[in-house]
Amino acid sequence: MKQLWWKEAVFYEIYVRSFMDSTGDGIGDLKGIISKLDYLKDLGIDVIWISPMYRSPNCDNGYDISDYRDILPEFGTLDDFYDLLKQVHVRDMKLIIDLVINHTSDLHPWFIESRSCRNNSKRNFYIWKQGIKNKEPNNWKGIFGGSVWEYDRNTKEYYFHLFSKNQPDLNWENGKMREEIYDMINWWLERGVDGFRIDAISHIKKDVLDKKMPYVKGERYVDAFERYTNVQGIFYYLKELKEKALNKYDIVTVGEANGVTVEQAPLWVNEKDGIFNMIFQFELLDLFESQSYHKISILDIKRILSKWQKVLENKGWNALFIENHDVPRIVSILGDNEYLRESATCIAAMYFMMKGTPFIYQGQEIGMTNIKLEDIEEYNDIKSKEFYCTKIKEGVPKEKVMKILGLSSRDNARSPMQWNDKKNAGFTTGIPWFSVNENYKKINVENQLKDSKSILNFYKKMISIRRENKVFIYGNYKMILKDHMSIFAYTRTFKGEKAIVICNLSVVNALYRYDTIKLNYSNFLLGNYPIDKEKYATEFVLKPYETRIYKLNCLEEDSVWKKNM
Ligand code: GLC
């Protein structure tokens, strides 16, 4: 496998709206990001991914684009963007942007034209179909719930939308539409962006639209995920996208690949002729989502992550992540309030030291938690609101719906970044567009910069350890203690070196015992508790959420091994 810059890099996702406001209008913006670049550099970040910053009516906070070549005025101007890019490059970092090409906003000029009349030249840029007996063309349910079809009174046809009705899907069968998209991508590449996170890309190809889903009792629209996800034939478009746009520059690409299984992943990211450098997998996210209904088993996390490590070994490259703008905060899912520092650092070590490129989502590095919202009016996220309406209509009691939302809403990840303990957590001098988490006085960047034992300083150390030791970048992965219910431990091996990462993902002590490798204090690199300086241990008790990272020479290990034989 090749050694490449983006494999060695650490990525950081910025949700622009909630990161830093420079104007006092309560909304994060590009200049706000510029003012925090030194913070990111100091943390050890190499590549910044920003959520959509294009012109948009903001039904889905920028994931509904109405002009691909301009900036949302609330975020700044194109000149601000160029300045951001320049400032990122001056600091020897890179910037990637979010490419939303499965759909546009319904206010994009293409869609305005498309819906203006049936024979408009842009009509087929989107997916239109006639209804059947005054009803939708099929009974498919979309990703945000409800039908995938919306009726247009003017032209008396339905258009297809996987997400909200304000996000009509582009018709990838249309070659002219595709050329426009490639043009746009090349336009950004010419401006010097360093790559893309490609949104919802596994959905661009749809199955035959006439195929109804089998009727499910009590459901008007039926989950049709497989009809619009990774559908056979998608590679024709993906390959073209790569050839006509992505392949032209030395950039990095990460596809958001909902529904792509681990078995299919090598096709998407294999180093020889895959489409993207990495994909974001959903198996782990689906597991996280199930936490609204039952407790997550650590064994499942171990199984899923290890499977992705093994399948991609020597073939492709993993994107390592545990948070993003669509999932609740990891400490609220897997961690513990009482052990906030310990759990945040333990979970960090768990995923960060695996083989792949680690991504950090803003605020994760200080252990930001889910936000408590009392009423549906306080929510912003379109998906959460649609979920609420559907469930209330189905007769689910309000308290139950609110409880599920509290655990699962995407808004949990979108509260403003907590910079300090001043007004609005230092995010804005105005009125923030969305509630600031009330715990900001305790959990914030400024406090943690001062505290050598903080979560933030743990991240910094972990990042520099990864940077200084190639074993954490290129080393082969092997899970140990496979059946342990709370300890997630693995080794990484590379050119005569071995590292071992041990994480007790539970609130109670756990006995670590692994005879094959004797661990010595002098091999200890990082942990979140003080440890005994005993020599050569193969067994010790891990405290709640304790993590330890060691590095040793394989030769040392071999001799220990022989002695044990
Ligand atoms: C992706 C984005 C999400 C957005 C959706 C529709 O999943 O991460 O935030 O709502 O695509 O664009």
From TrEMBL:
GO molecular function: alpha-amylase activity; oligo-1,6-glucosidase activity
Taxonomic superkingdom: Bacteria
Domain Glycosyl hydrolase family 13 catalytic positions: 13-414
Pfam family, one: Alpha-amylase
Keyword field: Glycosidase, Hydrolase
Single Gene Ontology BP annotation: oligosaccharide catabolic process
Root EC class: hydrolase
EC annotation from Swiss-Prot or TrEMBL: 3.2.1.10
Family to which the UniProt record says this protein belongs: Belongs to the glycosyl hydrolase 13 family.
Record protein name field: MalL
